[in-house]
Request: fold
Amino acid sequence: MATDYDTPRKTDDDLNEDSIEELKARRNEKTTNSVDVDDFDSAESLELPGADLSNEELSVRVLPRQADEFTCMSCFLVHHRSQLSHEKDGHPICRDCA
Reply:
């Protein structure tokens, strides 16, 4: 669970002031499940696996490998030179594959 360190801290006096009813109400608020209507709206636009996409076209602009990039000979992905780990038999290897 994430902790917000910017929130003011409670003293022992503040902790003792919380009544049992308040604590029970807080616990019940946390356990109630609310339905988010936006989830249903966004689900309508999703495509299911196996859907017919034969009429769809993709347009992607492909750039050639830049001067400061290399192709890893292990995973065959193009990486920036900063990701170069070493060369094995004259072929570059990225940090992820090293």
User: Anything to note?
Assistant: The radius of gyration is 27 Å. Strands lie at 69-71, 78-80, 84-88, 91-94. Helices lie at 12-17, 20-31, 37-43. The chain has a mean pLDDT of 79.
